Amino acid sequence: xxxxxxxxxxxxxxxxxxxxxxxxxxxxxxxxxxxxxxxxxxxxxxxxxxxxxxxxxxxxxxxxxxxxxxxxxxxxxxxxxxxxxxxxxxxxxxxxxxxxxxxxxxxxxxxxxxxxxxxxxxxxxxxxxxxxxxxxxxxxxxxxxxxxxxxxxxxxxxxxxxxxxxxxxxxxxxxxxxxxxxxxxxxxxxxxxxxxxxxxxxxxxxxxxxxxxxxxxxxxxxxxxxxxxxxxxxxxxxxxxxxxxxxxxxxxxxxxxxxxxxxxxxxxx
Length: 269
Known about the structure:
Layout: E1 20-21, E2 24-25, H1 36-40, E3 60-62, E4 65-67, E5 77-85, E6 106-108, E7 116-122, E8 127-135, E9 143-148, H2 149-155, E10 163-170, H3 175-178, E11 183-184, H4 189-193, E12 197-204, H5 207-219, E13 225-231, E14 234-244, H6 247-259, E15 265-268
Parallel strand pairs: 5-9, 6-8
Antiparallel strand pairs: 1-2, 3-4, 5-10, 6-9, 7-8, 7-10, 8-11, 12-14, 12-15, 13-14
């Protein structure tokens, strides 16, 4: 989530201190005087065929990292951690130039084209919503999407601050299948207890390379394992730690790993 949203994104130093406090970002929060029943009645965003925004689709830098927005959202599907933003940014300009409305079904994403419509499904409850991506963010580690207050409330993200989600791009042709809000899809027995989370340090086609990384990580006090799999007909060796059941556990491991010089990737199974 950016603390300043302009045509060319410039992040002020205050962003580095943005973090969650309770169920929301520091100095942020839900709206006042809005009933839960009113939020429940807010309909999904309806996918439409729209031209790309004049703003927010060029490469940009946030917190020292350069991002390259995608040319197309076709086939996009990703699992990760959702967060949300609320009254602190209400009425401010988003990266696409639209005003942020915390009671609209919108979201921020680092690289999806602006605008893009996506279905966001809570992996634990199976509940899903449709939102319009019109902003850039979130820039906290391992976060995949930043939801408006309304979308977060309807997915059950507001009280916890984060949730494990699956994000899938949808088009106007998909709207008849996905436009109803607050829908619940069947979930597996694993999803009922919560998906399994892993912190991944690397994936290699040569096993000895994975073993070298595993030894280095052991030397740093971590306890990784190597998972063998097959990708496109070839062997792959993934170096991971886990499984974990809570986002806070993954965040702690990822933060410690960055301190000792290792970048990580969140894997949800």
